[in-house]
Amino acid sequence: MSEPKRMHPISIVLQMLKLIKDAIIPLAVGFIAFFRNLSEMFWWSPFALIGAVLLISGLTAFLHWYRFTYRIEADELRLESGVFVRKKRYISKHRIQSVNTSANILHRLFGIVKLEVQTAGGGKKAEGEIGALSKEDAAGIQQFVKRKEQRDTETDSIEDLSSVKRAGYTLSFRRLLAAAATSGGTGVFFGFLFAITQQLDNIADFNIYSIAFDWLLEQSLVLSILFVIGSLALTWMIAMVGTVFKYCYFQITKQGEELFIRRGLLEKREITIPLHRIQALKVEENIFRQPFGLLAVSAVIAGGGAESDKHSFSTILFPLLKRSELQHFLKEIVPGFVVETAFRKPPKRARLRYAFVPILISMLITGVLVYFFSWYGLFAILFILLTVCFCVLDYKDAGVSWTADMLTMRYRELSRITVHVPRKKVQAFRESQHYFQSKKQLGTVKISVASGGAAGSSFKVRHLAEQDAQAAADWYSFRS
């Protein structure tokens, strides 16, 4: 039994900053709404509000630090927290799947780390989290949760440990720049920018989009095009910087039955992934990388993880590989997912099913834009041509393949995605057919695997030949 420990005192500052960050938008809205007419208010009112916010957040952060303790007792990691309501969380080491650490600038300045504990039943958030502790204490907890039988620990020799095979890949600076330039993160930045401008529109008495559109109408066509191109180039560069910060010093190492990932420039992260937690392997080729034979590899993890994407709960295993390097990478890092694929493709009669709805929607959107924006809307005709190209690629890329114990699915979102799923990892298999598919003897195959989401992660291939969809269902149910 160990004595209860508190986090490093710097966690007070970290928690205070987190509270202010979470509340910054509603505080800004309230501040502007309340102090819009400053002539009728006391001149010191804004400063009083800021002082009150700092005082309350500082007091809350101090109480959070003072009431939070952690300790190791028997086979459990015990976390106790709560100011008014005391919460006790006991996590058995036999339930713990991985212990991940990260360190932002403040952490690194004081030589501490943030520790997150993931369990098999965990969701998007970590089962247990310690915001600031020394590297020695973090290493002690990581050593504690190593899931080895005691007899193995007693009989292991130096020769046994040295014989454990290690394999690893490091992302070079050249590859990092290529990954950043082709990441497609511009769309994510535009989404963030849209959310910010919407908040500004709600706070202020002017519409940013209306002002920008009116300004563009007053300019020449050449200047308008240059403005749009310059805006896209700027957002692309910002997205590149974000990708560089995220994947700088990326390294993946396999030792025994665990993968270790390190990455990050401003915030250094260390992630541990037991191989048995990998439910599916995804190979993603976005529209910028596919023509150059480049791809990214990620794994769908049971229970999510600190590094998981918010929607798919997948963890990047390597940000950028050449297509010719993929098989060697899989053999070295995740040998259980090496398969040769011979896809069963959708038949020719499925081409209309892939094209009808997307082209119809694009034509309706183009018609609306032409109606409201006159000749400017004619540029939307390019949208129809891009939609046709996408439908052709969607049809050509789709397919399913399987071996005795592995199912492979390929489909297209904006990127071409190939998913490898072991039969024993499939949680649910669904073969469906709607009315229009039945007229063409087509069907859809959809599977689900366990991940951090409540419904898990799902993958599907549409408009396969009816007999192929049925054959896949027979494979899963052992009827084949």
Question: How would you sum up this structure, described in words?
Answer:
By secondary structure, this protein is α+β, with helices and mostly antiparallel strands. The chain has helices spanning 10-34, 45-67, 105-109, 135-144, 150-155, 158-162, 173-181, 186-203, 208-218, 221-247, 326-333, 351-373, 381-397, 435-439, 466-476; strands at 69-73, 76-81, 87-92, 96-103, 112-119, 128-134, 166-170, 251-255, 258-263, 268-274, 278-285, 294-301, 314-322, 399-402, 406-412, 416-422, 426-432, 442-449, 457-465. A 7-stranded antiparallel sheet has the order 6-5-4-10-9-8-7. A 6-stranded antiparallel sheet has the order 13-12-11-16-15-14. The N and C termini lie far apart (55 Å).
Annotation field: number of helices: 15
Counting copies of identical and different chains, the oligomeric state is: single chain
Number of strands: 19
Spatial gap, N to C terminus: 55 Å
Low-confidence stretches: 148-163
Structural class: alpha+beta
User: Judging from the principal axes of the Cα atoms, what is the shape?
Assistant: globular
Rg on CA atoms, Å: 27 Å
Could you say how many structural domains there are in total? 4
Helical content (DSSP H or I, runs of 4+): 40-55%
**Mean of residue pLDDT values:** 82
Protein name: Putative membrane protein
Keywords: Membrane, Transmembrane, Transmembrane helix
Pfam family, one: bPH_2
